[in-house]
Amino acid sequence: MFPTRRGTLSTWPFHPPSLDVWRIAANLVWTRWEAFLNAPRDARARAFAAYLAALDAEAAAAAEIAGLPTVRA
């Protein structure tokens, strides 16, 4: 969870599904990065391409969240 002045994102008055999509995508970025770091030399190009694809998915999910209306305290 991300801390905010009023608690965490899970304490928002609403919990948009796009937040869950972003969280999953962000976790996948880290998983793919670890896979790239541990990939054998002959698989590094494919592993890096998979990492870049995960970054694109995370960016798309973040853009979806950025378009949500904000909640005023």
What does this structure look like?
By secondary structure, the protein is mainly alpha-helical. It has one domain. The chain contains two helices and two strands; from the N terminus they run E-E-H-H. Strands 1-2 form a two-stranded antiparallel ribbon. 8% of the residues are buried. Residues 1-6 have low confidence and may be disordered.
Ordered list of secondary-structure elements with their pairings:
Layout: E1 3-4, E2 7-8, H1 17-38, H2 44-66
Antiparallel strand pairs: 1-2
Helix pairs in contact: 1-2
N- and C-termini, Cα separation: 19 Å
Overall helicity: 55-70%
Taken in chain order, the helices and strands follow as EEHH
Total strand count, please?
A: 2
Q: What features would you highlight for this structure?
A:
73 residues; mainly alpha; two-stranded antiparallel ribbon; 2 helices; 2 strands; 62% helix; disordered N terminus
Please provide a brief summary of the model.
With 73 residues, this protein is mainly alpha-helical. The protein has 2 helices and 2 strands, in the order ββαα.
